[in-house]
Amino acid sequence: MKNALTSKFEFLTGNPPPSFGFSGEEYLYNLPEYIGTWPDLNTYSFYILHKIKKQIVGYIRFQEIEEKAYSPYMAPFGSFAISEDVKFDILNEFNVFIISYFKTIGIKKIIIKHYPRFYQSDCNDLIIASMGLIGFHITTIDLNQYIEVSDSPFSTFIHPMELRYLKKCKRAGMIFNEHQNIEVESLFNYIESFRKARKIPVNINLSTLKKLFSKFPDNYRCFSVSMNEEIIAATISVEVNDRVLYNFLPAHNDQYNNYSPMIYLMNGIYEYAILNKYKYIDLGISSKEGTAQPGLIKFKERLGAKSASKLTFMKEIR
User: What pLDDT, on the 0 to 100 scale, is given for residue 220?
Assistant: First the structure.
């Protein structure tokens, strides 16, 4: 389906011309290969083409569940990827195009999980304003926390209490480890057992995680902290793009709470982020369906984390 908007721009759904590349910033979760990890879900991709430059200058992808279109259903966020060529009026028309298409195929609701502002601050307000103007309303406001990566050591900006724990971990001889991707099952089993002991859900199954590691071997990382050759903390991290490392699935053994090994794990991840030139470590949301989790917020703040809103938008189609 196409819409000839102007002599410069064109909207379409389906597949863009093979020679057209995207001129803006991309994220792992928006890639068709990532969305294709769940082949049982109907997927829809919408594009803004710059006909003169012969480029994709904007796009969004959706997964369908029970007459609802999610951007996305199976990822932390999706939303619009746009370049500086896309101005307010073009994005508004693009939204109208998407809504009209979904109306013709019987979609009843559109749900868009938008990324936190620090991912792409230059177009964040534009996207939010456009969705508001076109009739989307905010259904959930989650608190997302993140650490800015600089040349300063982790120890220089964490809370004094966490610094004491960090020193205690070092004195105890804890070791930070980066694992090979083939070890993902072993690390997942540790994470699952640690989380079950604390009654914290594991929001991905091993089969899907192994598939993602296989499809994106350069994006997924396994880290752990060991003491006396025993793994006592572990996490799965995701390179969302070359600027952001997402600390996706952290967990630790409660028997070592008096050491707080998560501090040592974060110290290692921060050093890894410096070495690999990331700008941010995304610590994920510290709320549940919009309800703040004060203890988790405080812990991340003591690690030097800043906060950003993570919004979910919804529009009913009539």
Answer: 97
